């Protein structure tokens, strides 16, 4: 079984997101943990991907909670 922390670590390392400078709250790491805990591997991973795609220089920022 794949652990959610392993998935988050793999994503962060491969996308260069391990710098700790997130423009959103909660941070992308915290968002990922919450998304996986709340929605499971499949839907949680989809939410993480959508969040990461929003994180770019022209993107916004601010409060972006995991949806219910």
Summarize the topology.
Layout: H1 4-14, E1 24-25, H2 28-54, E2 62-63
Parallel strand pairs: 1-2
Offer a concise description of the structure.
With 68 residues, this protein is mainly α.
Uncertain residue segments: none
Count up the domains: 1
Task: Assign an overall shape.
Answer: globular
Q: Can you give the mean pLDDT?
A: 82
Structural class: mainly alpha
- Approximately how much beta-strand content do the residues carry? 5-15%
Number of helices: 2
State the total count of DSSP E strands. Answer: 2
Describe the sheet with the most strands: 2 strands, parallel
Cα-based radius of gyration, to the nearest Å = 11 Å
Strand numbers in spatial order across the main sheet: 1-2
Description:
- This protein has one domain.
- The termini are far apart.
- α1 crosses α2.
- The mean pLDDT is 82.
- The radius of gyration is 11 Å and the shape is globular.
- The protein has a two-stranded parallel ribbon.
- It has 68 residues and is mainly alpha-helical.
- 56% of the residues lie in helices and 6% in strands.
- The longest helix has 27 residues.
- The chain contains two helices and two strands, in the order αβαβ.
Features:
68 residues; 2 strands; 6% strand; mainly alpha
